[in-house]
Every structure is written in structure tokens, then in C-alpha cells.
Design a protein that fits this description.
By secondary structure, the protein is of the alpha+beta class. The chain has three domains: 7-148, Creatine Amidinohydrolase, Chain A, domain 1, CATH 3.40.350.10; 161-304, Creatinase/prolidase N-terminal domain (Creatine Amidinohydrolase, Chain A, domain 1); 306-598, Alpha-Beta Complex (Creatine Amidinohydrolase), CATH 3.90.230. The protein contains 20 helices and 27 strands. The strands form eight sheets. The chain has a six-stranded mixed β-sheet, sandwiched between helices. It has a six-stranded mixed β-sheet with strand order 12-11-10-8-13-14, sandwiched between helices. A three-stranded antiparallel β-sheet has the order 15-18-19. Helix 4 (97-104) runs parallel beside helix 5 (120-133) and helix 14 packs across helix 20. It is globular and about 70 Å long. The N and C termini lie far apart (53 Å).
């Protein structure tokens, strides 16, 4: 992003452009045309305008005021990055953008939005808010931020590769057949797929258009009869990849999507769209041409989330390599942190190097990290999605906590793990808070639950020990994780908004936390796999449960055994007991010795 002008100038230029377009305001979400969570540089409009670099947020600019809305992960970050004199920070749960707009828009205001960057569901909420205020929500033909962003980067052109059927566990043609059946069951003639990870999963392709996400930005129209169409820039495809994809679908340029949507409308097609993830522009193009939108769930979402045996096997393998890299890092940190000046950047770089070395030693390839490592020392650890920079990097100092949340993209699986490490001797409060967080993590990991149980019902288990002490955390307990795909994957999650039932094969994170602003952050995260239901002794119905995939010790120095039940102590000791056997072949003698000491039973 350019730094040639400051945010005040950018905001003034945007207001001038709004006046030129006959608008009273504009809504700028953190989004691209594919509704991606992480964006290519060309789509970082919110960051360019406001300075906010988080992965979720929305700004609303009116003629004489502006606000930026973020969730609980970013309440500290937004204060550090955004000039509150220009954009008033708001918590998007406590004050949703639609409610703010309802009370701040004036009669006859024309509030603009880019229909490619807003979902059908979001537009409906905002339309209602504007109507209630006597204002009008207006779809723009050209995004006014693009009109003033003179050095906006070009769209990404990352090369596309193919994920083998062996690793994918199912050929693309078989997936497409299953999706045709799903469309028929929904009484739809077609669906439009725009989410990048859904495209990648459907066609067994992988790309590099978005940092740390092995996806290619593309579109697809899937039909109940006839071949699908894949809209992708041909410059991303080698001849071999093009030939392979052409066996499954017709290949068109992205610019042809508009005409194809209009053609569906002219044919009177019934097109299945998920309102929460489909751009409003897609719906408008179909209905304006005479088609019908059938509202329903994205047909790729659940099949993608339910990992098949090959994907599960790959994830298990990837987590062994990743666990060994984490152990090598933690052993190095323990051996050096008191003697060397180690800062957040140096620690993150060392961990990345261990991941690359460990993967190579195992004959596997580290493709990328799965996100920018969250490497937070002391008060920086309290910033939930902290992003270290040379300006903010802190030393790991005695008497503090160090939080490291990291992950990797391997060809056979995606990992995500958080560990909190004491630098020197932790105080009693740190141990209390850490142990309560750990109890929440264990409560989820050991839960047994019937079919139909959703994330809302399990989320409370992770919070109970914190609630008992008047504490909480302002983020979800867990998110879905892809198979060499996005580290944040829907549709299921463990949170206060997790309404999708958990099913066997889903992989989710289990990561409660606690954050003391200005002091420290604590989070413990393992990935878990939903296991098939099993009969329980004396029970009258089978119960699902979790298999823990992550292999890495939990720092015993932060655990207060007095706060734990006998069952919780048993879980920790049993979890630690298997690590040396699982990871030992990837460690040297000194690292194995460190792991043996780090996994002694509690109380010894």
C-alpha cells in the first residue's frame, strides 16, 4: 500500500469522490469479490483507507463523520492502527454497522456500496437500516476507493497446481457428481461458487493468490446437467493444468462471468446461492435477467468440512512434523532466552526455520505458513491477532509471558497451534489464569455429545472455569480448519454464534484464552477431529467426541495442579506421555531430553 498520503488526506479524497458520484456516504468492508477473509494487496481497500490491517472489519464514511467496526479480536489493534479522530472505533457485535447507520444516516442520504464486496444478507440489513432512516442504499458501478487509489496493485496471478487424488481422497469428477445431486435436491438448476477455498476443493486445485492460503481466485458455475464452467485467468494455468481442468469443466476468462450469469437469468434458471457468502452483484445479475435465486446453503461447504480418510491421514502426518518443529523451537527457546536477547521477530523466524527443516528431514515439503505468526511478548500477547513488526517487536523478558500462535501449510495438511510460555518465573495470577484457560481447552477436548450438537452448546464448556472467576475472552473458542486449504474454514465453529452441527471428519481448533490489557495474553490451542459416534457404557445413544491432532507439550510451569480435578490431571499426563514416542524420531538427543523433562507427570 502506498504511504504517499496520510489517512486524513485519503478520507478527504474519498469524500470528494463521493460528492462527485452523488453519494452522501460509502460502506467499505474488509472483503474482495470472492468474500475472502484474507485479501490480496489489490483488495486491501479498508487498510488503505483507515490503516487497519485486521482480517475482519467495516468502515462507514458519511459527509461529516466516519466509524470503523471490528470484533473482539481487534479492539486493541484498531486503537493502535486507526486515528480515532477520523474513524470512531465500534464493536461490531455491540454496535452493528446496520444499527449505527440507522441512527446516523439522514433523510434523503444516498449511501453507496460495492455490490461485489457485500453479501446478499449484508445488503438486506443495510437496506433496512437506510430505509428506517429515510435514506437510500445505492449500488455503485465503480468503487470510489478504487477511483482515488492511484497506485492500487494489480490483481494476483499466482500459479495453479493440482492436488493429487491420493491426497484429496476423491477425484474432482466424483465431487462434481455429488454436487449435481445436491443441486437437484435443492430444486436448483445451477449454483455460483465464488469462495476461493470452495473452488480449490471442488476442482482439486491449489493456488497462491492469497498469502498463506493455497487458493486461486476464480469463479465457477455448477449445473445439474451439463458441464460446469470455471472462470479463471489463463495466465495462472500451465498447459498441463489447463488440460487436466478442461477434462472437468469449460474454462473461461473471469470477464465472461457477467454474461454467463445473465444467460442463466434469460434461461429462467433457478440458481442456488447462500446469502451469507454470495456477492449481492451475483444475485442482481441473475434476477435482473429473469432468473430466480434459490436461497440455501453453499453445497460445497459441508462436504469440504467433512474430511475423508485420506485427508484425515494427511492431517495426522502433518501434525507429527509440526509437533516436532514446535518441540525443537520450545527447546531452543528454553536453552537460549536467558542468555540471548531474543525478540518477537527473531522467535517467529526461528520457528519458521524449524518447520522448514523438520519437514525436509521427514521427506515432506513445507509449502508456506498457514498465517502470519502471532508472536506476542508481554502486553503484545494481549492483542488477540497481533502482527509483529520492526516497530512493535518486543524482547522476551524475564517475568513476562510469551504467546506464539502459528501454523503451517503442508501438502497433506494444515496446522494451527498456540502455546503460552513463561519467560522466567510466572506469578500466581498468571498461573491461575493459564490453568483456567487450560481447563476450558480440556473440557472441549474431552466432551462427548450427541449428533446435532453445535458450537454454541460446546463453547460454554471452554469458558466455565473463567466465568467462575469473573473472567472471559472476546473471541470464538474454535474455527474449522481446511485440508491444505484455509486455516479458517466454515461452516462449523465453536463459538457463541456456532449454529452448524458438528459432524464426523470435521477438524476444528480448541483455543480458549485470557487477555489482560497492557500486561499479557494467554491462549492454549490444539486442533481436534470430530470422531464418529460410539456407544457409551450404560448409555442409550451413541456419542461423538474429539481426537486431538496436535502434538506439543503444554508448559507445566504455568499449571497450578491445585485448580485441576483428578480427571484433568490424568488428561494432561496422558497427553504428554505419548509425545516422546510420536515425535522422537524427528528430534536430536538434546531435544528428546528436553521433551522428556517437559512432559513429566504433574507433581513430579
Amino acid at each position: 500500500m502506498s504511504t504517499s498520503i496520510d489517512p486524513r488526506r485519503r478520507l478527504a479524497d474519498l469524500r470528494s469522490e463521493l460528492t462527485r458520484q452523488g453519494l452522501s456516504g460509502f460502506i467499505a468492508p474488509h472483503a474482495d469479490e470472492h468474500q475472502s477473509e484474507y485479501l490480496p494487496p489489490s483488495a486491501e481497500r479498508l487498510a488503505w483507507l483507515t490503516g487497519f490491517t485486521g482480517s475482519a472489519g467495516t468502515a462507514i464514511v458519511l459527509a461529516d463523520e466516519a466509524a470503523i467496526f471490528v470484533d473482539g479480536r481487534y479492539t486493541l489493534q484498531v486503537g493502535n492502527e486507526v486515528d480515532s479522530a477520523l474513524f470512531t472505533p465500534k464493536h461490531l457485535v455491540e454496535t452493528p454497522p446496520s444499527e449505527w447507520l440507522k441512527s446516523h444516516a439522514r433523510p434523503n442520504d444516498r449511501i453507496g456500496y460495492d455490490p461485489w464486496l457485500m453479501t446478499i444478507a449484508n445488503v438486506r440489513k443495510l437496506e433496512t437500516a437506510c430505509k428506517d432512516a429515510g435514506a437510500e442504499l445505492v449500488s455503485v458501478e465503480r468503487n470510489p476507493i478504487d477511483a482515488i487509489w492511484s497506485d492500487q496493485p494489480d490483481p494476483p496471478m499466482g500459479a495453479v497446481t493440482l492436488q493429487s487424488d491420493e491426497l484429496a481422497g476423491e477425484a474432482a469428477n466424483a465431487k462434481l457428481e455429488g454436487l449435481r445431486e445436491a443441486l437437484g435436491e435443492a430444486n436448483a438448476d445451477a449454483t455460483v461458487v465464488g469462495l476461493a477455498d470452495a473452488i480449490a476443493w471442488t476442482f482439486n486445485l491449489r493456488g497462491s493468490d492469497i498469502a498463506h492460503n493455497p487458493v486461486a481466485l476464480a469463479w465457477a458455475i455448477l449445473r445439474t446437467s451439463g458441464r460446469p464452467t470455471l472462470f479463471i485467468d489463463g495466465r495462472k494455468l500451465t498447459n498441463a493444468v489447463r488440460v487436466a481442468l478442461a477434462e472437468q469443466a469449460d474454462i473461461e476468462a473471469p470477464e465472461a462471468l457477467g454474461d454467463s450469469l445473465a444467460a442463466l437469468g434469460r434461461d429462467g434458471a433457478r440458481v442456488l446461492l447462500e446469502t451469507a457468502s454470495s456477492a449481492a452483484a451475483i444475485s442482481a445479475a441473475i434476477t435482473d435477467a429473469g432468473g430466480t435465486v434459490v436461497e440455501g446453503a453453499d453445497p460445497t461447504a459441508l462436504p469440504k468440512a467433512r474430511k475423508n480418510p485420506a485427508e484425515i491421514t494427511g492431517s495426522r502426518r502433518a501434525h507429527v512434523r509440526d509437533g516436532a518443529a514446535m518441540v525443537r523451537f520450545l527447546a531452543w527457546l528454553d536453552a537460549n532466552v536467558e542468555e540471548e536477547a531474543i525478540d518477537e521477530i527473531a522467535a517467529a523466524e526461528k520457528l519458521a526455520a524449524f518447520r522448514a527443516e523438520t519437514a525436509a528431514a521427514d521427506g515432506s515439503e513445507l509449502i508456506d505458513l498457514s498465517f502470519d505468526t502471532i508472536s506476542g511478548a508481554g502486553p503484545n500477547g494481549a492483542i488477540v491477532h497481533y502482527r509483529v513488526s520492526p516497530e512493535t517487536s518486543r524482547l522476551l523478558e524475564a517475568g513476562s509471558l510469551y504467546l506464539v500462535d502459528s501454523g503451517a501449510q503442508y501438502r497433506d495438511g494444515t496446522t494451527d497451534i498456540t502455546r503460552t510460555i513463561p519467560i522466567g518465573k510466572p506469578d500466581a495470577e498468571m498461573r491461575d489464569r493459564f490453568t483456567r484457560v487450560l481447563r476450558g481447552m480440556i473440557a472441549v477436548a474431552t466432551a462427548r455429545f450427541p449428533r446435532g450438537t453445535n458450537g454454541i452448546q460446546l463453547d460454554v464448556l471452554a469458558r466455565q472455569a473463567l466465568w467462575d472467576a469473573g473472567l472471559d475472552y472476546d473471541h470464538g473458542t474454535g474455527h474449522g480448519v481446511g485440508s491444505f486449504l484455509s486455516v479458517h474454514e466454515g461452516p462449523a465453529n465453536l463459538s457463541k454464534r456456532g449454529t452448524v452441527a458438528l459432524e464426523p471428519g470435521m477438524i476444528l481448533s480448541d483455543e480458549p484464552g485470557y487477555y489482560k490489557t497492557g500486561a499479557y495474553g494467554i491462549r492454549v490451542e490444539n486442533l481436534v477431529l470430530v470422531k464418529p459416534p460410539e456407544n457409551m457404557p450404560g448409555g442409550d445413544r451413541p456419542m461423538l467426541g474429539f481426537e486431538t491432532l496436535t502434538h506439543c507439550p503444554i508448559d507445566r510451569r504455568l499449571i497450578d495442579p491445585e485448580l485441576l480435578s483428578a480427571a484433568e490431571i490424568t488428561w494432561i499426563d496422558e497427553y504428554h506421555a505419548g509425545l516422546l514416542e510420536t515425535l522422537g524420531h524427528l528430534l536430536d538427543d538434546a531435544e528428546r531430553a528436553w521433551l522428556k523433562a517437559a512432559t513429566k507427570p504433574l507433581g513430579r
